[in-house]
């Protein structure tokens, strides 16, 4: 890949991601269950875990930010009753979080809002091209995880 290609790809990915986020946020902010994308990203990190609980530091690492940077979002989610913090008996120094029932319901609503946005964004793209696109993204994610 050339430097010019890298810049071109990065610009397209950033533009696309930003506009998907803007459309999602508009849909969710106008629904009865308002939630920000920052909160949704934290919720998504929690639900990606097999046992649906995760350490705060792991959320920060997954999102590429410091633990302090997500603390306000975590505080807000906890205050709204959407997640709960807890410690394990064998190591009370490490704080974990998990979604409450309310948090899981909101996450499901957000995912429902995602479908029409993604349908609009992928209109006119063939199923084969979408499959290739998903494969390329998965490969890029795997590459990035290896160098993280």
Structure description:
The protein has six helices and three strands. The chain is of the alpha+beta class and 148 residues long. The chain has a single domain, classed as Winged helix-like DNA-binding domain superfamily/Winged helix DNA-binding domain (Arc Repressor Mutant, subunit A, Orthogonal Bundle), CATH 1.10.10. A three-stranded antiparallel sheet has the order 1-3-2. Helix 1 packs across helix 5 and helix 2 packs across helix 5. The protein is globular, with a radius of gyration of 17 Å. 14% of the residues are buried. The model has no long low-confidence stretch (mean pLDDT 84).
Number of helices: 6
CATH topology: Arc Repressor Mutant, subunit A
Determine the oligomeric state from the structure. single chain
**What percent of the residues sit in helical stretches (DSSP H or I)?**
55-70%
Number of discrete domains:
1
The general outline is globular
Short synopsis of the structure:
The protein is of the alpha+beta class.
Task: Give a topology summary.
Elements: H1 3-29, H2 37-47, E1 53-55, H3 56-63, H4 67-79, E2 83-88, E3 91-99, H5 101-121, H6 127-147
Antiparallel strand pairs: 1-3, 2-3
What labels describe this entry?
Arc Repressor Mutant, subunit A, alpha+beta, 12% strand, 68% helix, 3-stranded antiparallel β-sheet, 148 residues, globular
